[in-house]
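Hi all, posting the design record for the shared folder.

TITLE: backbone redesign
STEP: 1 of 1
STRUCTURE INPUT:
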């Protein structure tokens, strides 16, 4: 077999190629040891686009299948037709193309017995890329075959990466809108960017870290981060940028640029505030990667700005809701911190109950409206220092219907939920509550949760008509009312998370108004 190879003189033929992480994997599958040795010797100095060849050897169809299971990135396989049986190589072709769905590897059949598998028949029936008789495959022709096959493999891989990358951009653009709030959205952007960058693991030169940021009156602040920036929310980004990168940012209103291993994209919205995406620890090697990152970043920054405007509207709604709640509490000679505590405790319990993040956030923003109807209760009843008599109690109970009627016609989600909470937060699990006497799961979940948060905070706080209960007494009350006033699952969640709930109460402590009457 050695006579079939003609070794042409090569420049620097005695040099040993330097080892390289980036190699082209070539599988040689043949039951003749000489073929393996001669093939590797003939291609010992071959390089394509600066990358060496790495040979993987197999001597049977069974070994070939094992090799392809373990190696997903074989560029070319030089495959003998006849090995342990007359069609072993043909079976391997079917395994690669059909069982493994590998359409990238270039398959070159080699045979010393062309009559066993006629070329015309094989090329029509099987998805192979070339068919060679061993006697015609000289060293020069082997070089030619390598160049042609590797160019083909390179282009197919590039096209496939482009397809995968564009699919990821499309999926990312869809998935990032799952985040309904700015921090969730920003986190989603970073997750999807990382996904897009993973189309080529060799692009990474270190641990990737990234942040999304937004400009306010005090600077450009981190909204969400990954890696070393994960816990830097609210920090000014200037401390994380090089002087060159910071200068670029200050001089740029819209666009993207790369400096060393860092990428930064910036967009200035209609409110003249900048939105920023920053990635550190990447090495963009191809135009495809650069195009995909720019495409994604430029699009999401516009969406980021639009969501920011939406967030400002929501923040305005939240502030109005809190101020309404505070107005009621102030009239009751309390601060507005009761409604803040109820809001935070309600969200915590909702998430622990299994409510999704969006609905839990809506509940947090609606729960301060639970006592809105008290704005229509006379001062003599609302601020009476002692126990209410029968008629007074009937007047007080009317606050649920007053609050409901004030909110029920709104088309805004927060106010619609607030109307239900205002109407039902005094209903009881056993049906003994008011105003309708409904029970169990007939009471809206948001109202059941708010009731637990409201009563817990009310009992544990000073009021004009009572002193705060000791916490042990509050816990005992909830255990006694488990299944009567309150849903058992919510009582259990309250007690299981009591440290977190008390931390909320510590954060929003009461400051009582002086009585100037």
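Okay, here is what came back for every position:
SEQUENCE:
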């Amino acid at each position: 077999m050695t006579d079939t190879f003609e070794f042409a003189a090569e420049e620097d033929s005695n040099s040993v190629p330097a080892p390289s992480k980036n190699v082209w994997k070539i599988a040689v599958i043949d039951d003749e040891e000489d073929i393996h040795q001669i093939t590797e010797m003939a291609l010992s100095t071959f390089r394509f686009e600066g990358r060496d060849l790495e040979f993987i050897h197999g001597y049977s169809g069974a070994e070939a299948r094992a090799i392809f299971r373990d190696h997903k990135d074989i560029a070319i396989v030089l495959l003998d037709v006849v090995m342990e049986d007359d069609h072993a190589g043909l079976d391997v072709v079917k395994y690669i193309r059909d069982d493994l769905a590998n359409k990238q590897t270039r398959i070159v059949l080699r045979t010393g017995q062309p009559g066993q598998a006629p070329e015309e028949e094989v090329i029509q029936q099987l998805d192979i890329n070339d068919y060679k008789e061993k006697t015609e495959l000289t060293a020069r022709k082997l070089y030619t075959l390598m160049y042609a096959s590797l160019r083909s493999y390179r282009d197919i891989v590039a096209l496939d990466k482009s397809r995968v990358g564009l699919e990821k951009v499309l999926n990312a653009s869809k998935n990032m809108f799952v985040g309904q709030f700015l921090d969730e959205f920003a986190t989603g952007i970073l997750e999807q960017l990382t996904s897009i960058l993973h189309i080529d693991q060799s692009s990474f030169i270190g641990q990737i870290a990234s942040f999304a940021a937004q400009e306010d009156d005090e600077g450009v602040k981190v909204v969400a981060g990954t890696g070393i920036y994960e816990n830097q929310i609210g920090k000014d980004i200037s401390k994380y940028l090089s002087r060159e990168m910071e200068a670029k940012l200050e001089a740029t209103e819209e666009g993207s640029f790369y400096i060393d291993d860092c990428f930064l994209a910036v967009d200035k919205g209609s409110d003249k505030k900048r939105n920023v995406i920053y990635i550190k620890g990447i090495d963009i090697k191809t135009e495809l990667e650069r195009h995909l990152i720019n495409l994604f970043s430029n699009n999401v920054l516009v969406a980021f700005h639009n969501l920011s405007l939406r967030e400002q509207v929501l923040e305005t709604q939240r502030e109005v809701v809190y101020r309404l709640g505070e107005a009621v509490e102030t009239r009751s000679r309390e601060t507005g911190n009761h409604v803040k505590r109820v809001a935070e405790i309600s969200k915590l319990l909702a998430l622990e109950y299994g409510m999704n993040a969006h609905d839990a956030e809506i509940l947090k923003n609606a729960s301060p409206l639970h006592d809105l109807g008290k704005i229509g209760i006379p001062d003599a009843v609302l601020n009476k220092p002692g126990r209410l008599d029968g008629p007074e109690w009937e007047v007080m109970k009317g606050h649920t219907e007053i609050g409901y009627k004030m909110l029920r016609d709104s088309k805004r989600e927060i106010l619609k939920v607030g109307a239900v909470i205002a109407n039902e937060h005094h209903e009881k699990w056993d049906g003994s509550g008011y105003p309708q006497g409904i029970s169990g799961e007939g009471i809206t979940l948001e109202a059941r949760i708010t009731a637990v948060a409201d009563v817990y905070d009310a009992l544990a706080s000073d009021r004009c008509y009572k002193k705060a209960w000791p916490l042990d007494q509050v816990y005992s009350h909830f255990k006694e009312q488990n299944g009567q006033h309150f849903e058992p699952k919510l009582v259990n969640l309250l007690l299981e998370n009591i440290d977190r709930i008390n931390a909320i109460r510590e954060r929003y402590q009461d400051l009582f108004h002086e009585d100037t009457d």
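COMMENT: Confidence is low (pLDDT under 50) at residues 1-20, 176-180, 199-206, 513-517.
Let me know if anyone wants the other runs.
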